[in-house]
Design brief:
Elements: H1 4-13, E1 20-27, E2 30-34, E3 45-48, E4 55-63, E5 66-71, E6 83-86, E7 92-93, E8 102-104, E9 124-125, E10 142-143, H2 148-153, E11 156-157, E12 161-166, H3 172-182, E13 187-195, H4 197-214, E14 216-222, H5 227-246, E15 250-256, H6 258-271, H7 283-293, E16 297-298, E17 305-313, H8 322-330, E18 333-337, H9 339-343, E19 356-357, H10 366-391, H11 400-416, H12 426-437, H13 441-444
Parallel strand pairs: 8-14, 12-17, 12-18, 13-14, 13-15, 15-17
Antiparallel strand pairs: 1-2, 1-6, 2-5, 3-4, 3-6, 4-5, 7-9, 10-11, 16-17, 18-19
Protein name: Flagellum-specific ATP synthase
Pfam families: ATP-synt_ab, T3SS_ATPase_C
GO molecular function: ATP binding; ATP hydrolysis activity; protein-exporting ATPase activity; proton-transporting ATP synthase activity, rotational mechanism
Amino acid sequence: MLTLASAAAGLRALSPDRRYGRVVAVRGALIEVEGLVGAAQIGSRVSIASPGGVVDAEVTGLDRSIAHCLPFSDPQGIASGARADLAAGQLSLRPSSAWLGRMIDGLGRPVDGKGPLLFGAEQRPIKGMPPQASARARVGAKVETGVRALDIFAPLCRGQRLGLFAGSGVGKSVLLSMLARWTECDVAVIGLIGERGREVQEFVEDDLGPEGLARSVVVVATSDEPALMRRQAAWTTLAVAEHFRDQGLNVLCLMDSVTRFAMAQREIGLASGEPPATKGYTPTVFAELPRLLERAGPGLPGQGAITGLFTVLVDGDDHNEPVADAVRGILDGHIVITRRIAERGRYPAIDILKSVSRTLPHAHSEEENLVRLAARRVLSTYSDMEEMVRLGAYKAGSNAEVDRAVDLAPQIETLLKQGKNERGYAAEGFATLAAILEDTHEDAL
């Protein structure tokens, strides 16, 4: 039975007023709302009435008495004069360990048909801030990824952030699925940003599988969703990863792809009236990229770490295009996947000579580094002379180092070749590589 005291407590919990405005214009995806002066802030959430139901939107810009809003869903049906209610506070999540094995959207809502989510006690902002640089722990020990090319030539350490740079159709998503299954971690948080809708279930069922999904939270925003939802999904991916990191767990954060996050931010910036800069990307794109990527990495002492693997879809196979160039300068290493290698049938098509891990040489032992450097020298020598060898312009016996490279490079390439379901081990890989180089690798150093 409702008592007077409980009714009074309920009334005190209510906000004393509710601010609302009216829609005055809809320009493409941009909705202009009037009447929220002094109340609306950048990032505020607005609920707009429409015949099809309430449309949630976010304030992305302010222009005198007009609030520029972008919707999280299709704005069709919104009419001029529609009521726009301003919600209190910023968007936030309450993640919990019960989210493991679930698929959610950018707002933390379930999309897997498995029923409602169980929420944790802690309220966490979706757009969080990275730990203070001076207080963060250092990058930890080496982590095996199960991919021989990476474990030998571009190792990943706990708390490190690596970028996978590739054009379309060269095996980037397949490599990501291998990393999702085999990389050592306590929890995996996977963000599929702007992904093809048909590939989501394929990735979850075929690539992750029941065992991989059980330790994972998958955040999905497909390519047909509004730009705001695609950007939000990237922020949510990091927010969920931060929750598990703060519990002392080692988290693997996979995001496919950062480029689609940048494209979503470009759409939002252009709709809000920002001037286009390099290749149409607005200035906020290059401001938001470090804010997103710096959230991954080691936590504070006593916390866990977020080991990040972020894919970058390079435009027209140009690895110096603006987004790729900006991301490469932020991350702790870059893995280059090239079409030239994919076309000759060697997968994963990682270009060893162009890939860099900034944890080298400390990630490997001294002996492993000797083997790695000797193998790189062989591959570099062969790369320089490859065209001449194929054209028959090089005569065997002209140069001993080239002769050795011509003999050994195909064997190293065979070692680097790896099937989608074939797990590699670093110790075995180094042993095989040392056997290929034999005892002559010391003479080549």
